[in-house]
Amino acid sequence: MDCITKMWSVLKKFRKEEEDVPNLFLQNGSALLEELISFSSGTYDIPIRSYSAQQLVKATNNFAGRVHASTYGYICRGTLQGRSILVKMFINIPGNPASHSDFDILAGAVRDIAVTSLMSRDKNVLKIIGCCLEFRYPALVYEDARFEILANFLDPNCDKLLSWKSRLKIAKSIASAILYLHTAFPTPIIYRILNPHNIILDHHCVPKLFDFSFVISLPPGELQVEDDLIWIPGYFDPEYQSSRANEDDPEHIVNYVNDHIHKDDQFKQIVDPKILNESSVNHQQLQAFINIALRCVQAKGENRPDMLDIARKILQFE
Question: Staple partner for 80: which of 2, 41, 59, 92, CB 3.0–4.6 Å?
């Protein structure tokens, strides 16, 4: 009985959205246009192809084959016009402690489409090929990268080898993509949620950044902007992290690494054993890379390097 009730609820929801298609298209299209103008200062010149809701429902077999759970929803694989695609749907789950307001989800979806399209020329960004404005929250349509999330490779229980050479390539590529966000637009765009769960590796092991739902643009002439805190444990600004620390907190990873980085006999305590087992790894290079990472998490913002400096230093590694 519960199953029938849920199915009826979903059916009514889709019927209601079908009735609202013209209004949804206009409302979402207007919001997307405003966002594109905001981030590009009116210089946007890349058209975004629009797909209908029916096309995406059919292409994904009613959104079966989900391959990833994203911040506001999920990504599923499908086939559209003979082409393999990925569709990112935004949803809100009533009663879920992690749910967001309709306004936040809509804003995140529109922002994601706008900035992803602006970044479409970057080979290290998951390429958008279109969107659908006929759902309650706009959906993204990506090219199919046949991917795996980077975080899966970094899991201690993962038996797949991600070599030091590959990790260095990933770091260089993502640093370049973030630098592009900071420098290629009228005002810098800050990503804010950079972590291994928002980076995929395609079947050629090329890293691609995705999920621009939480980016924010700095006001003209400003170096900072206030906004709501994004709760991602382990990826806080060090100054904020230190402001909320207490005696009961476990040892912070930065302190742990600092305690071991300059001790030759304990170097293995802070490096993935899979890397240490590689015969060709240069330990001096590894230590130099860790030192750069530690500069990025200095307690005070003025002591941390900017993205341009970091990208230049990482690109120097061979």
Answer: 59
